[in-house]
């Protein structure tokens, strides 16, 4: 048996988020293109060197991206939306940034392409756009350039290509509807050209990612797999490892095993079948790439378990790769930099660097047929089960008591809404925001100084209060109807709640890319969760004391906290969500008791938590919706519950949204031109909606006319009495100047419409 170690991709941001700093400096015209490229090159070199040092035999190339790897593919295929073409269609890095952000150091400002969640992760990709008879041409040479770079350093490289079918599936039709598969024949020659270029470089294996194989696919798409991979097989002589990840592929297995490919990567963390059973069904001469190290969580792997599983197939296959289940893009880089995590707990974790080391340990153990080193590596896993950090009997008893509770509001929306209208007395088309206000450098410094004990709790509280006061004053000056405190005390909407709940631990440097230059540090759920003490009550009450307008309390919902944390794996997600929901319920009821009449419980990750195959949706939705409702269970009819969701597909999700029974839902719709509201109309969504009227991810300022147009479209779909006016998402990433100008335009547009009624 021949074994090599590889991974499906390494985090691209750099241990100190060097990529983020470089991108943002370039956008601000503080560094040149040459300097930007130099930083990218240095990062790639560092990452490759790290992997080699950690015993990775085959280095993934193509995991680096200037913004997003789907967007890199768009560039490679020359699939540039017309509005982003400039300068005689010559494309360069600014074309890429214009597609992503609507603006770049050169070229005109335009609306950015849509951004949406990458399968069930918290990573966002830029959605490719297709028109009827879309043509493609090989343009952006980044992948081949990087391959040459890796080869020049003497590395054995494995290029990563996003497969043509996944690329087409993930894209969106602009204009008249057509079958996206009609474009396959236009796109395949570009892939062929790419594969030829790769072949010329004497590359052993090409990783072609087709993650859509984890989804339910129509017959025509499964047939298209035969067509595509036969085309590659006939026209190219590369060894292809077809790569699937994020889910089980049993339902598409028949198709996969009959494809003319040379290798298959399996995400064995998410596969429902046993490795041995799969191995028996997979052609003997195929290379098997075993995705055994979880790229989506931070726990050490049970290497002894995998040793035993792999041993069973060891003598029956010619060649295997030991690999991560998916790209390590979704995982922090190195646990060694965590100086504040308790040493007992730290031993439970493996970040990207440690995951590569796990592959090294496993390969050696298999080769030497000796598990000694695996035993010491996995010892902390056993210790964890017995640790008293994990179990809290109070939480467990509360959960037991809650088992029979069916959470719901006392009355239906139309009755509640009468009470709420009476209490709140808002104008038609009430204006509000999603919660966060600009997180300026000065604000981040205050938080940082407090964290590093440069300022004490008192000074910190006063500084935060000063910012809340400014946020309220600005909102009053702008004339918003429902105000927020602005979330200045929060580093992140999930990490902050994690920090204030029992059962979590956090990292100092566990950054993971969320989109573009934006990163998050997911907290880690290590044990039973409960509320330590009130979390948002004091600051929300303080904000309310400064204004006569209603303040909307701001919480992150249980499913989103769960989804955007690294969860424990010893109890079900349902149990964790229930623990979170009960903790939030304590907070909701205390906010209500303190006189806060509007409470928003954000659930932007509810959709992304859906299992990839539909037959598994029902049980997920049952517990996820239940957790959301449990978090507000017990509030009065007159308390208006809002929720917020962004950057996700709603089409197939309307029943769930309705069942949440929030009085108001604010959603992202502006990048998609209010198309989404058609769905709300079709489903006769009964409660109130705030469709985002401008895109907060772009620095471009929306015009009053443009917002008015969008509002008119919205009024055609939804009864005006149930419509709210708000941006797409929180304003934390924007500057104050951008925020004020945009909100001013938004309010003016609402006033213009009100005046015409
Ligand atoms: C709504 N979204 C969110 C998602 N996931 C989350 N967990 N949170 C979200 O809000 N998923 C979907 C979307 C994605 N959107 C975003 C939007 C914005 C960000 C973002 O702004 N991220 C920041 C980092 C935020 C943070 O934690 N900042 C810390 C400061 C940490 C830091 O930068 N320290 C510096 C020193 C700073 C100084 O000295 O001034 C350092 O360590 O070097 C804080 O504010 O306290 C980002 O910059 O990327 C993410 C997702
Ligand atoms: N309340 C959060 C929601 C982001 S999805 C914010 O405004 O940033
Ligand atoms: Zn949002």
From TrEMBL:
Residues that coordinate or bind L-methionine: 434-436, 487, 602
Cofactor binding comment, as recorded: Binds 2 Zn(2+) ions per subunit.
A Pfam family recorded for this sequence: Meth_synt_1
Record domain Cobalamin-independent methionine synthase MetE N-terminal: where: 5-315
Active-site feature positions: 697
Binding site for 5-methyltetrahydropteroyltri-L-glutamate: 17-20, 117, 122, 518-519, 564, 608
Transmembrane regions: none
List of residues binding L-homocysteine: 434-436, 487, 602
Family of the protein in this entry: Belongs to the vitamin-B12 independent methionine synthase family.
Record-given protein name: 5-methyltetrahydropteroyltriglutamate--homocysteine methyltransferase
Organism listed in the record: Buchnera aphidicola (Thelaxes californica)
Lineage of the organism: Bacteria, Pseudomonadati, Pseudomonadota, Gammaproteobacteria, Enterobacterales
């Amino acid at each position: 048996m021949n074994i090599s170690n590889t991974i499906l991709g390494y985090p691209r941001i750099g241990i100190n988020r060097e990529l983020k700093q470089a991108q943002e400096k370039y956008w601000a015209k503080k560094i040149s293109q040459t300097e930007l490229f130099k930083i990218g090159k240095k990062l790639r070199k560092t990452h490759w060197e790290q992997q080699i040092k950690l015993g990775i035999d085959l280095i993934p190339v193509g995991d680096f991206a200037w913004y997003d790897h789907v967007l890199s593919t768009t560039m490679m295929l020359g699939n540039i939306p017309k509005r982003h073409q400039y300068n005689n269609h010559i494309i360069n890095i600014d074309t890429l940034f214009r597609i992503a952000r609507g603006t770049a150091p050169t070229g005109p400002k335009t609306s950015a392409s849509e951004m949406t969640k990458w399968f069930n992760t918290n990573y966002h990709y830029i959605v490719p756009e297709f028109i009827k008879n879309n043509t493609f041409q090989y343009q952006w040479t980044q992948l081949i350039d990087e391959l040459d770079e890796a080869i020049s350093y003497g590395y054995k490289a494995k290029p990563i290509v996003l497969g043509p079918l996944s690329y087409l599936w993930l894209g969106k039709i602009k204009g008249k509807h057509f079958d996206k598969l009609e474009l396959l024949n236009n796109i395949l020659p570009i892939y062929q050209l790419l594969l030829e270029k790769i072949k010329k470089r004497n590359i052993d294996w090409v990783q072609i990612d087709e993650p859509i194989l984890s989804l339910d696919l129509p017959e025509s798409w499964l047939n298209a797999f035969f067509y595509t991979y036969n085309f590659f097989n006939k026209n190219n002589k590369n060894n292809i490892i077809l790569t699937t990840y994020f889910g089980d592929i049993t339902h598409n297995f028949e198709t996969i095993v009959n494809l003319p490919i040379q290798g298959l990567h399996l995400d064995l963390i998410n596969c429902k079948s046993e490795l041995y059973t799969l191995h028996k069904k997979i052609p003997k001469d195929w290379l098997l790439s075993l995705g055994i190290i979880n790229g989506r969580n931070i726990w050490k792997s049970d290497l002894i378990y995998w040793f035993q599983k792999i041993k069973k197939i060891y003598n029956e296959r010619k060649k295997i790769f030991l690999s991560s289940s998916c790209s390590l893009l979704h995982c922090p880089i190195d646990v060694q930099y965590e100086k504040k995590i308790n040493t007992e707990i730290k031993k439970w974790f493996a970040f990207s660097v440690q995951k590569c080391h796990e592959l090294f340990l496993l390969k050696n153990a298999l080769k030497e047929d000796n598990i000694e080193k695996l035993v010491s590596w996995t010892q902390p896993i056993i210790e964890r089960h017995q640790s008293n950090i994990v179990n809290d009997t109070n939480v467990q008893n509360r959960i037991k008591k809650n088992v029979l509770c069916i959470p719901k509001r006392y009355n239906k929306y139309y009755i509640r809404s009468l009470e709420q209208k009476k209490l709140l007395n808002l104008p038609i088309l009430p204006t509000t925001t999603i919660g966060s206000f600009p997180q300026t450098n000065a604000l981040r410094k205050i938080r940082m100084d407090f964290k590093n004990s440069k300022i004490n709790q008192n000074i910190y509280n006063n500084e935060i209060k000063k910012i809340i006061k400014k946020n309220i004053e600005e909102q009053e000056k702008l004339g918003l109807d429902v105000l927020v405190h602005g979330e200045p005390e929060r580093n992140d909407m999930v990490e902050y709640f994690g920090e204030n709940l029992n059962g979590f631990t956090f990292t100092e440097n566990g950054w993971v890319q969320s989109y573009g230059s934006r990163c998050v540090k997911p907290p880690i759920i290590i044990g039973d969760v409960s509320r330590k003490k009130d979390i948002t009550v004091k600051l929300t009450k303080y904000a309310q004391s400064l204004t006569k307008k209603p303040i909307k309390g701001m919480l992150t919902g249980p499913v989103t906290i769960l989804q955007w944390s690294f969860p424990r794996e010893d109890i079900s997600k349902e149990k964790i969500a229930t623990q979170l929901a009960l903790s939030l319920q304590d907070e909701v009821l205390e906010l209500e008791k303190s006189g806060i009449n509007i409470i928003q419980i954000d659930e932007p990750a509810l959709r992304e938590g859906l299992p990839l195959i539909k037959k598994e949706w029902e049980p997920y939705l049952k517990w996820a919706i239940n957790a959301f409702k449990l978090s507000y269970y017990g509030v009065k009819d007159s308390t208006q519950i809002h929720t917020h969701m962004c950057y996700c597909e709603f089409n197939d999700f309307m029943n769930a949204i309705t069942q949440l029974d929030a009085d108001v839902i604010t959603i992202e719709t502006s990048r998609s031109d209010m198309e989404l509201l058609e769905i709300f109309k079709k489903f006769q969504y009964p409660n109130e909606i705030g469709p985002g009227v401008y895109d907060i991810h772009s620095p471009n300022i929306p015009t009053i006319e443009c917002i008015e147009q969008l509002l008119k479209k919205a009024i055609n779909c939804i009864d005006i009495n149930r419509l709210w006016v708000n941006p797409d998402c929180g304003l934390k990433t924007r500057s104050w100047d951008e925020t004020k100008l945009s909100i001013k335009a938004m309010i003016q547009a609402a006033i213009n419409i009100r005046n015409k009624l």
